[in-house]
From TrEMBL:
Keywords: Repeat, Transferase, Ubl conjugation pathway. It is an enzyme of class 2 (transferase). This is RING-type E3 ubiquitin transferase. Residues 75-149 form the U-box domain. The keyword Transferase applies. Pathway: Protein modification; protein ubiquitination. Its EC number is 2.3.2.27. GO terms for molecular function: ubiquitin protein ligase activity. InterPro entries: ARM-like (IPR011989), ARM-type_fold (IPR016024), ARM_PUB (IPR058678), RING-Ubox_PUB (IPR045210), Ubox_domain (IPR003613), Znf_RING/FYVE/PHD (IPR013083). It comes from Quercus lobata.
Amino acid sequence: MAKTDVNDSSDPTVMAKVTELKKELQRLVKAIVDDDEDCSIESIDEAKEKLCALKELKQRRNQRSLSVKLLDSLTCPEEFRCPLSKELMRDPVMLATGQTYDRPFIQKWLNAGNRTCPLTQQVLLHTILTPNHLVRGVISQWCRSRGIELSDSVHDINDEGVTDAVRDHFLSLLEKMSLTPPEQKKAAKELRLLTKRMPSFRALFGESIDAIPQLLNPFSENKSQTSIHPDLQEDVITTLLNLSIHDSNKKLVAETPKVIPLLTEALRSGTIETRTNAAATLFTLSALDSNKALIGKSGALKPLIDLLEEGHPLAMKDVASAIFSLCMIHENRSRAVRDGAVRVILKKIMDRMHVDELLAILAMLSSHPKAIEEMGEVGAVPCLLSIIRESSCGRNKENCIAILHSICLNDRTKWKEMREEENTYGTISDLAKNGTSRAKRKASSILERLNRVVNIMHTS
């Protein structure tokens, strides 16, 4: 049987809730401290709620400790045990196949992206969990006959804190997404707020393959996004962002057929907040390599690059983060180069906009021959050398010299510029002595090549 200590990882429901609460609390406290006088009262109130919820979980676990220890000493019938945990079921629920499991453990199975019954391996028509009141009643009677109290508090914290009332409200909001535009707007606004504030609400979307399509109902029937009210579009896109934060949702969200096209179109239209949140959603989803490939194939890189070129301050960081994450796989680097990323990124770097993030992207793209050719055409060499001279950031210097090394290997016409830089400022030599270990290697390699060229010229 599971122990009751808060640090016990064998109780997935409570541990998931505790971990999520701590993360949310850490984020809120940081926001409050960093914002000083400008922090919102809403943030403070939300932090108080998280603290209270954390305290309540601890109290509930302590209250159950005596009963659990007693259960540990007893041998319960095999049919009372969850097929997954092999422990006495506290909240037995049925899958679509009719098999019964303890809710926390089957929920963890489903949240991991599985869509089959663990026992029968049948594909599930849906992932809604139905309480098995008969089995729970028999287990409760067995416990009572032995003087053991099976706490009802498990109902209050199942599914990472989801109550039946919360689930019912969730389903009613999804139903409203297929009603009139005013009802859709109201429901979308509430879904946005709830998925922001309640991690458990995000998890609910993983229970049914129909939940996300229902959320996207306003965009069905071949409607153009331009015909959708901007507020409704923004709320739906932001809800997708909130959902994608939940690790167990990333695969489900990205693989729902309408989602990536919807996000891609949102990058081109709507308010700047909508476009920014669409970029942030793509960044969050791209944490999975399979999603990186899916997003790249969808054509999302081009509108991301276009939004980067526009240079709106609100969107720049999220867009750059999304492009960087997507380009971590080789095929997306080719797509980014084809879609004009090199010229756009270099222009922003020359304007000294988000240099850190954009240099990191450019360093990845520099493995592509076409990228090297374009860098030479738009004056990348003097720009990168000037950053090495001016910057105090070791990582930026490292990325600059890595890009210059790729240029040096592939474009001999740029050796003269590097040689002149070295003669005038000693920029590369200085980096070979004082840079990061990687920067030293790249700088030394460039110097060796430049010296060989000089020696060849002298001997000829």
